[in-house]
Amino acid sequence: MSQTKTDLCVERPKPSESVQTLPRSDTHALRMEYVETARLKTLLTTSSCDFLGIVHHERSPGGSNGLGACPTVCLDLPQFSGPPITEVWTSTLPVTYHQADGIHCAMNEEVLFGAIQMEEPPGTRLDIVTYNAYHRLLAQARALGYMHLLRVWNYFPHINRESDGRERYQQFCVGRHRALAESLSDFPRSLPAATAVGTMSGPLNLHFLAAKQPGIHIENPRQVHAYEYPSFYGPSSPSFARATLRSSSTGTHLLISGTASVVGHRSVHICEPYKQILEIIHNLNTLIGHTERLHRGTGGRWSSGAVFKIYIRQSEHFATIRNIFEERLPSDAQVLYLQGEMSRRELLAEVEGLLSQEKFQDVSRIRLPTFNRFRKHSVSRHAKPNHIRIV
To answer: What is the pLDDT of residue 66?
Structure first.
C-alpha cells in the first residue's frame, strides 16, 4: 500500500451549516457535491454553474425542483441523519439537454449525464428489463457522440429476493452482461465503474456518466476482477470495473465503484459490521495506492476534496459505521449515509467515492490521497470541530 499522505484543505461543514459550496469561479466540466435540499431552489437562481443532474434520495420529493429538462433521479434510499441532502452534478461549461427513448440527458463538450427508469411489468423478468434499459442508454449516448461509459449507478428493489429460481441481483447481472457484451468494444476491459444497490421500492433506476474520450478502468489487486467471478455467483459475472480514472483539460476524477468487504471474490467478516468497515477501508486504500503506482503519481492536490456515499443495510449498525468513518475519513470529505441493500445478503455496508482534481495535470503525474492506516488504539479526532480523518 502506498504510504504517501496528502493533506486535504477543505473543512467539512458543521452539522448546522449548509453544505452548499457550488458557486465558484473555476472552470469544470464535471463536479458533484451534496447540497441541503431546502436550499436547492435558492441555488438554482444563484449558482453560476449549469446543472447536469440531480439525485434525490427519497422516492417523491415534495415540490418541483425547477430544473426543467435536467435529469432528475428519485431513489427510495432513506437518509440516516441530518437535514435532507440532494446530490447535485454541475458544470461551468455550457450544458444542453436532450430526451429520447426514455433517456434524459445533460451534456457539455466533454461528458454526458443520463438517467433512465424502467418499470417491471408483471411477468417480465428483471434481466429482460435490465437488458432493454442498458441497450437504450448505450444507443442514446453513442448517438449523441459520447462513446465511452465512465460510471453507472444501478438501483432496484428486493435485490436479494429469489424470483424464478434465481436471485434478483443475479437476474440483473444477466441482463447487464448481455447488453454490455453486445455493445462495448474491448469487452470486458472497457467496463465502467459501477454501483448496484437495493432500494426500498420503485422501478429499475439507472443513471450514468459517459464521455467523448475513454477513461482508464482500474482494478483492485486485493480482489478478483468482478467480471471473472466464478459461476457460484450466478450465470453471468457482475460487469463492472473497481474504478474509472478520467482526465481532461478541465480536471481529473477518480470514480470509485461500490466497495464492500470482499477479498478475492469472497465476502469476509460475516455478521461483523466493525470488521467489514475496516476491510472496506483496506480495499479503498489499496485501490487508490494501486492507481497511484500505475500512473506514477509524483505530485498534485485534489482541489475539491472527496465525496463518499455509504450504504448501510441495517439501521442498528449506523452508529458504529458512522463513528468509524468520522474518525478515519479525510478532513474535507463530504459524506452521505443511506439505508440500502447490498448485492450479497451477508454484506452489511458498501462505500463509493469520487475524488476530483479540477486543474489539469497529465494522468501520469497525479498523486492520489490515501487513507491512513488503521491504528488499533488510535485516539478519535471527532472532537476536533469540522474535521474527520481516516486513521
So the answer is: 56
Q: 3-state DSSP call for residue 302?
A: coil
Residue 334 in any domain: the answer is yes
DSSP string, 160-177: T-EETTEEHHHHHHHHHH
Please identify which residue in the block is written with the cell numbers 449525464: 113
8 A C-beta contact, residue 124 and residue 138: no
The sign of the CA dihedral 374, 260, 156, 201 is negative
Q: Which strands form 216-218's sheet, in the order they lie side by side?
A: 216-218, 243-248, 251-259, 349-357, 306-312, 334-339
Beta-carbon-side half-sphere exposure of residue 363 (alpha carbons within 13 Å): 15
**Domain extent for 194:** 31-365
Q: DSSP secondary-structure letter at 289?
A: H
CATH number at residue 127: 3.30.1330.40
Per-residue model confidence as pLDDT tens digits over 324-343: 999 988 778 899 999 999 99
Give the pairing of strands 111-118 and 103-107. Answer: antiparallel
Tell me which residue has cell 440500502. 340
CB atoms under 10 Å from CB of 367, counted, come to 20
Nearest partner of 102 among 126, 134, 77, judged by Cα: 134
In whole angstroms, what is the distance from residue 141 CA to residue 181 CA?
Answer: 16
Cβ atoms 104, 148 nearer than 8 A: no
pTM of the model: 0.86
CB 247 within 8 A of CB 363: yes
Domain total in the chain: 1
Q: What is the DSSP letter of 241?
A: B
The two beta strands, 111-118 and 204-211, are: antiparallel
